[in-house]
Design a protein that fits this description.
The protein is low in regular secondary structure and 300 residues long. The chain is built from one helix and three strands. The longest helix has 9 residues, at 3-11.
Length: 300
């Protein structure tokens, strides 16, 4: 269908364009608000700065399409194919994207606040500075995605795949990541105050300079993790495994350390808990030892 014909139909009041073929079309800045575009073919089309608010693009083919700065709030993209699409700066607040295919897509600086991305595939996507606050990311594949500086406060990540995800300098305050596999994940400089990481797998994770005040890490495994310069003030480290972790320069003031395992951990230059009632387990004895009695730079 010719773009001019479609726009004429829209101006005449037509709203049903299901299955339309506009592959490679130039639709920059067009207005198609509240239209039915289910199953439409937009492969390689240019929809930059288009107004598609409340439109339904479920099942649409948008791979390689340019959707930069598109307005698609409250839109539907259920099972849509957005592989390698450019959505940088897109406005998708409260949009529905369950099952959307978005691997390799560019969503840098996009706004998806309160969006539903249940089960979507964002593998290897560029999500730098993206706004995902209050979004539903349950079951989402974020493996190898770049979320540097992303905002995820209030997001739900139950069952999400986070293998190799980059969360450096991301805002993760108050997130529930209990039991989540974050092995080797880059969380350097992340803002994680109040997050729930009970029982999480953080083996070898990069947490340098991360802000983790009041974080619950009860029973979490941080073996070999890099926590240099991290703020763990008032954190719950009960039975946390920190063997061979780097805690140099870390702030542990008022942290709860009952039963924590610091065997072989580097703690030189760290800020230690003020309270004499905080204890750690060295890994070599069943007796709890006051933290301040540890000798030398290495514990255990």
């Amino acid at each position: 269908m010719e773009v001019s014909y479609l726009l004429n139909l829209y101006e005449a009041g037509e709203r049903n364009f299901a299955g339309v073929d506009l592959s490679g079309a130039d639709l920059r800045g067009v207005t198609l608000i509240g239209v039915n575009l289910t199953g439409a073919n937009f492969r390689g089309a240019n929809l930059s700065r288009a107004f598609l608010t409340k439109s339904d693009l479920s099942g649409a083919m948008l791979n390689w399409a340019d959707l930069s700065f598109v307005k698609l709030s409250e839109g539907k993209l259920v099972d849509a194919d957005l592989t390698k699409a450019n959505l940088s700066g897109a406005f998708l607040v409260k949009s529905k994207l369950p099952g959307a295919k978005m691997s390799g897509a560019n969503l840098a600086n996009a706004n998806l606040r309160s969006a539903n991305l249940w089960g979507a595939n964002l593998c290897s996507g560029n999500l730098q500075q993206i706004n995902l606050r209050e979004a539903n990311l349950s079951g989402v594949n974020l493996s190898w995605a770049n979320l540097c500086g992303a905002r995820l406060s209030g997001a739900r990540l139950y069952g999400a795949s986070l293998n190799g995800t980059n969360f450096s300098r991301a805002f993760l305050k108050g997130l529930d990541l209990s039991g989540v596999d974050l092995q080797g994940v880059n969380l350097s400089g992340a803002k994680m105050s109040g997050a729930k990481l009970e029982g999480a797998n953080l083996i070898g994770a990069d947490l340098r300079e991360a802000t983790m005040r009041l974080v619950n890490l009860k029973g979490a495994d941080l073996t070999g993790a890099n926590l240099a310069g991290a703020c763990l003030a008032e954190a719950n480290l009960t039975w946390t495994i920190l063997s061979k972790a780097d805690l140099s320069g870390a702030d542990l003031n008022d942290a709860t350390l009952s039963g924590a395992n610091f065997d072989g951990a580097r703690i030189d230059g760290d800020i230690r808990p003020d309270s004499a009632q905080q204890f750690f387990y060295s890994g070599t004895s069943s007796n709890a030892i006051p933290f301040g009695e540890a000798a030398g730079a290495m514990v255990g």
